[in-house]
């Protein structure tokens, strides 16, 4: 199994989830992160003190998939998350040694 | 002049209470929008305080309460420009109560109404109204809509006043006026991206309830202050206000249960506001039974009315129409039904009064509602065609706080942003 | 009737202030619970405003202040049902001050007390009281506990009043009454899951402090308004209130340091509330030295008293017993010690007064405390046996906001939830 | 004594409003600091209420308003210690208005000023002032700075009063006094770690705006209450206050745009406060044109003034100097320019008055500003050398809330911390 | 070394930590995440607009363990986190190339 | 490619980012986590109820680097994050199967 980790723009989550649900992938884990990269943050001003934020709010989406599904899912995620503007994010893939479903104790692909 | 210090004290503090309602409204609204737009919402309400305060003392007080222009009862002159001639009594008033409080105190008290009325409108266009155009809108609206409507109803020389329309504390001038304007503005500006299928949950219900608590508190100034004296009539207005707010809350909660859902805190406070809106015109004319009825009916009717926007496809974001327009109509008309001379000399049909009163009330509702709606539509449309009324899609996505005002409302988990920007 | 407009203005605004205390209390309590339960806490307090407001004008005002039933001084009749006969003076009062304010103003002012008293109770049963049963509880409690106790102490025909028990602004009627009820309710409903080993830290101390600030502000209406006139006595009550609140804060902070810890903001505001509670019955009877003593003692005693719940194993979640019951007792009894005729005609033993006063105060404390405790226990037990008082374990885990009211209090990091539900 | 109940009611409620301003200020400041320091900020303001309330009734009222010591107009005696002799009129006052309100009401009203003045100072030393030293500072400052300056300006026996310096509601006593003290304290305590290159963004702008809303509301008590009667003068003060606040807001926002940035909500409320500060001394002496001018000028000047701290390298964290010192000076001096006898008998040079008035105002500004600055510097330096004024670097990193007060302000995502500590 | 990542119900954290502390595992890193899966969220209503949330709050627990300890720790985590109701979560395992303790620079197992 | 995961003290983020920007590493993803370990939390008191928090706020910094850069970056991160006081945190390294830049679809090292 593989773990796909996607750093995306927050308002793209809906598109990503919709894309995945079409191929019947209905599980994921999402968290709020701050991204630092080429994309610049916005300017904030408080009583005349002005500064540029360097972190941009992003979402981190983690999806466990079977090896066979990897390519298709990656493709879908990347396509759904794309706006073609700077800061669209990254997707990386990690190999998993094991996966268990807590409720049942099922292991491996059955646990997805 | 020998003014009554007790009455003066009461109207002064009532004015302060009503001015405090505008920040209250800001929090009520601000709590209901998403966290990326809360500052923009607060900003609009605070800026209304800035703009209308200045307009009022220079221009709009005089237009509303000044010597009538041409005797048509339509608008006042600039006689009181910059508070000139302000030791004179309000034109048209006579009798013993005329000068029991300094005229300047009346200016203050009425100012508080002139401020909150356009502030109420900001709820309908929440999350998408651009800031510059908003400023222009408020100026035009105050002059072209608020001042004339206040003249019609509140000035003794106004045509609706002379028709003997009853509006104790602004059911027409404040509630229907702002409510109709809110609907018009929502129509012109269009829906928020994603509405209605995308959830746009309140970002802080406690903030909304804080606003609701301040509103309830301030409403005693609004309504009981409208007696312009610390007397039994003020006490009637006070207790009716409280009772109707309470009844509105309870019936809205019952409505939620009857529809099969849970009773919600936002429902509780919305129902209270609905009851308070409806009792605004009527609080000086009804007894406790009338007030209870008005509150109960307003809670039910408004709870139902806010669902109509989904059917109509009008994104009145924070239900200015459903609560203020509808609640204002309910309260204005019901004076003609449950008004009782036991409180102040007017009988509704239930107490043997003539149906003429109800007719007059209906005329006022229609006149104020339609004038406000169409004039607001015109103003909004004009601004939209010239400056553009609405923020860009990108600004809407990003949120108004950072994109319009270069501020973020909250930095709780400040470690990241604080360490390094 | 020739009412005094200054006094009327004062009592009207005092009433508004006290009504504002109930939202204030809601925030005080709401800030102290966990974020998953804050709306349920706010809801209970707002709904008390809804329910008791209506009960009061129809039923409970009359029970509390109406013509005495049978002359026993135990309860009033329904003479004033629906504010009937409301132009009559309060039965039992006589003398020049009787009709210096409209009776309706008195109804309003007393209503504000009737609202906040049951609201105070909600702190003890925080995080676990089911909503429907809560509504029933409030109705029964207002009728069966609040109305009689108010009659005993505040009505000139009440048996404690006739015994010459002194209670300026509700030490018995409000504080001891709600405090004893809170303890009884906490016992009947049982501990929260995990209490006391599991930490249940306040989710927003600033919100609690906002509530505390509003309470302090409103308390001027509560206590100085109880003079029912804008006069020197009101001024005494006002300055005593402020001084005792300040002293309570300082002594609570000192207590925290003496116990080896740091001084906390929640301690500061809790101490202020303790001082304010204790000065409530006594503010019209003591001078500034007495007020200081009462405040200092209340701060220390209450800071100690709130630790007893851990020993007793009673999960009085927000310390209704430790603060309101204990503080109320402290203030009521100390009138018999530091009361001084220099302020209003009554001397405590320190000023050469008779010990009889202290005895009467003790009788009042016992009567009100025990009646409220046992009656509340009975009501709660009955509800528990019939409807069930408590939410389910799952609801307690999940939190009351979503499980009872289908709402989440906050959505700060809204991106996830907003994008997609 | 035959007091006027209307005036009494007004000054009582005005006093309550001003006392409410201190929690308001706490939220205004608390919202502007980072979330790890918010409780410490709230704590300082609440504790000021505790300390100064007690000091006032025992010591500082008497020093400020008591019989003059030696006739130099510098300080009062302890004649009124513990509110002794409090039925006597304020020494030095005479004429019909002397005893229209109970002297105790005057004590209350002036107390509210004595509380908020040192509270304002806490903004300059935000995020780094140790708690114990702070307590000592407040006690010393109240006695050594506040009491004498109040005596000079407000007591009829004070030397500045006798010089006919005009200060309606405390431009010198409250604003310049606290502002100069704030700058001195910021200098002595030194910069925050990382200032100015590290961003220290407000953690909750809505909380700051809540504070701003409460301040605006309370300011009506502050200024219109200073008429000490519910009359036309109070109404002038009221409307001038509102107008200047509004104008300050608008001109600050314009300033932000002119500098090329966006208009901010924090700017709106800061501008309002600047206008309110500037109108404080002048609200009883100018008409609506004067008030507008003062508000507009204050907004611009203060918006510019707060940028000077970066040049001067003084970390006046929340701009006590830029807003209160500068705004207070603007308002105090402008009386000499736009004061008009149409309001209360004094003409500025624009209205044909003598330049002597302006000179007197300048003397007051210099005397109060310099005295406060140097005395505060001395007090702070002494404390710094003996107890140490500042928290440790580690405490500054960790945040004051947990390190000084063992509390965290917020627990929103409570699941982790709640589950297991 | 292995990295065990457990997505669990928030109120189960106490049980998980207690279970681990018995075998002397006293370190972990926890974060708040939102889970999307079979378990449905709750209904929310705001002024009559009703919707179903699809994300459920979860905690993500990350524990670095020595290879030998892997099976025991996984077993303990899964058992402690189990309620047998839907939404109990997943546990997955990632192989680590390296681990360093920042304070001392120790590497590998010594750094745990 | 490798994924470096660093758990650090929050106020050290600035130093870490500055250190990395010197070798021209300008991207990272940061999130707020709660650490549990040897370092004790602080004491909190609410109305006389006193307890010791066991979790300490930390930041989790995730940096994708090319294999060649791994050692240098790790070294820099560890040095920059060090205070030599307990609780400085851990750094661990995970091997990545793949990396994509969402905006362009670039893969592998080019996507960093
Ligand atoms: N080397 C990296 N390691 C980890 N995360 C990264 C790295 N570089 C970029 N990111 C993440 O990807 C997001 C987008 O990167 P950015 O450089 O702004 O735009 P783009 O990917 O379109 O070139 C960043 O906000 C950050 O969260
Ligand atoms: N494919 C997946 N990838 C990543 N996380 C998942 C995946 N499926 C489920 N999860 C996580 O596990 C949690 C529980 O999954 P769910 O399907 O609701 O119940 P269960 O695991 O009991 O079948 C989800 O809330 C989500 O956080
Ligand atoms: N076994 C572990 N697995 C995952 N994270 C850990 C582990 N042990 C420690 N940590 C993380 O490292 C942080 C620092 O660990 P700690 O034991 O407090 O200090 P130190 O690393 O200096 O010995 C912890 O707060 C936690 O976030």
UniProtKB/TrEMBL annotation, chains A, E, F:
SUPFAM superfamilies: GlnB-like. One of its GO terms (molecular function) is enzyme regulator activity. Pfam families: P-II. Keywords: Nucleotide-binding, Phosphoprotein, Transcription, Transcription regulation. InterPro entries: N-reg_PII, N-reg_PII-like_a/b, N-reg_PII/ATP_PRibTrfase_C, N-reg_PII_CS, N-reg_PII_urydylation_site. The keyword Nucleotide-binding applies. The modification O-UMP-tyrosine is found at residue 51. It comes from the Bacteria. SMART domains: P-II. The keyword Nucleotide-binding applies. GO terms for biological process: regulation of nitrogen utilization. One of its GO terms (cellular component) is cytosol. Belongs to the P(II) protein family. PANTHER family: NITROGEN REGULATORY PROTEIN P-II (PTHR30115), NITROGEN REGULATORY PROTEIN P-II HOMOLOG (PTHR30115:SF11). Homotrimer. This is Nitrogen regulatory protein P-II. The gene is glnB2.
Automatic annotation (TrEMBL), chains B, C, D:
Keywords: Ammonia transport, Membrane, Transmembrane, Transmembrane helix, Transport. PANTHER family: AMMONIUM TRANSPORTER MEP2. The chain crosses the membrane at residues 12-30, 42-64, 101-122, 129-149, 169-189, 201-222, 234-255, 264-282, 288-308, 320-346, 358-380. It is found in: Cell membrane; Membrane. It holds the Pfam family Ammonium_transp. One of its GO terms (cellular component) is plasma membrane. GO terms for molecular function: ammonium channel activity. Its main location: membrane. It comes from Acidithrix ferrooxidans. InterPro entries: Ammonium/urea_transptr (IPR029020), Ammonium_transpt (IPR001905), Ammonium_transpt_CS (IPR018047), NH4_transpt_AmtB-like_dom (IPR024041). This is Ammonium transporter. The keyword Transmembrane helix applies.
């Amino acid at each position: 199994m593989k773990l796909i980790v996607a750093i995306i723009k927050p308002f793209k989550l809906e598109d990503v989830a919709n894309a995945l649900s079409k191929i019947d992938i209905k599980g994921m884990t999402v968290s709020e992160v701050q991204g630092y990269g080429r994309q610049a943050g916005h300017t904030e001003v408080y009583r005349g003190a002005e500064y540029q934020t360097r972190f941009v709010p992003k979402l981190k989406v983690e999806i466990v998939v079977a090896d066979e599904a990897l390519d298709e899912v990656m493709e879908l995620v990347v396509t759904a998350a794309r706006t073609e503007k700077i800061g669209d994010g990254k997707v990386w893939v990690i190999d998993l040694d094991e996966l268990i479903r807590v409720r049942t104790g099922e292991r491996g692909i059955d646990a997805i | 002049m020998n003014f009554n210090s007790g009455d003066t004290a009461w109207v002064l503090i009532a004015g302060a209470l009503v001015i405090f309602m505008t920040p209250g409204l800001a929090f009520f609204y601000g709590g209901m929008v998403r966290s990326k737009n809360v500052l923009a919402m607060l900003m609009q309400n605070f800026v209304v305080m800035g703009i209308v305060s200045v307009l009022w003392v220079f221009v709009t007080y005089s237009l509303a309460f000044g010597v009538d222009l041409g005797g048509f009862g339509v608008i006042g002159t600039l006689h009181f420009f910059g508070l000139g001639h302000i030791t004179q009594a309000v034109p048209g008033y006579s009798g013993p109560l005329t000068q029991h409080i300094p005229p300047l105190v009346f200016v203050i008290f009425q100012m508080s109404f002139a401020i909150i009325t356009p502030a109420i409108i900001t709820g309908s266009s929440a999350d998408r109204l651009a800031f510059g155009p908003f400023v222009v809108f408020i100026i035009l609206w105050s002059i072209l809509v608020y001042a004339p409507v206040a003249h019609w109803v509140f000035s003794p020389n106004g045509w609706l006043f002379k028709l003997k329309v009853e509006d104790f504390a602004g059911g027409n001038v404040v509630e229907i006026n702002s409510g109709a304007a809110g609907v018009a503005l929502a129509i012109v500006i269009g829906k928020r991206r994603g509405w209605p299928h995308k959830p746009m949950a309140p970002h802080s219900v406690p903030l909304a309830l804080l606003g609701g608590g301040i509103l309830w508190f301030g409403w005693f100034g609004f309504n009981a202050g409208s007696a312009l004296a610390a007397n039994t009539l003020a006490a009637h207005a006070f207790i009716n206000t409280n009772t109707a707010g309470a009844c509105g809350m309870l019936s809205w909660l019952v409505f939620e249960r009857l529809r099969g859902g849970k009773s919600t805190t936002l429902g509780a406070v919305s129902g209270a506001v609905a009851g308070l809106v409806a009792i605004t015109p009527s609080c000086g004319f009804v007894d406790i039974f009338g007030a209870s009825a008005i509150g109960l009916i307003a809670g039910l009717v408004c709870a139902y009315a806010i669902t109509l926007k989904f059917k109509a496809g009008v994104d009145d974001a924070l239900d200015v129409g459903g609560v203020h327009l509808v609640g204002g109509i309910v309260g204005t008309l019901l004076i003609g039904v449950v008004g009782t001379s036991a409180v102040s000399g007017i009988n509704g049909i239930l107490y043997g009064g003539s149906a003429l009163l109800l007719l007059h009330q209906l005329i006022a509702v229609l006149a104020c509602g339609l004038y406000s709606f169409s004039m607001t539509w015109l103003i909004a449309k004009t601004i939209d065609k010239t400056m553009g009324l609405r923020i860009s899609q990108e600004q809407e996505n990003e949120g108004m706080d950072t994109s319009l005002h270069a501020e973020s409302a909250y930095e709780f988990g400040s470690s990241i942003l604080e360490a390094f920007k």
